[in-house]
Amino acid sequence: MTEAQAAEQKRVLLGEGLFTPTEPGEDGQIIATHCKSCGDYFFPRSFTCHNPECEERDVEDVALSGVGVVDTYSDMSYPPPPPYVVKKEDWVPTPVVSVRMPEGIHIIGMMDDCTPDEVSIGMQVQTVIRVLYTNKNGEELVGWKFRKV
Ligand SMILES: [Zn+2]
Question: How far apart are CA 78 and CA 99, in angstroms?
Answer without folding.
Answer: 21
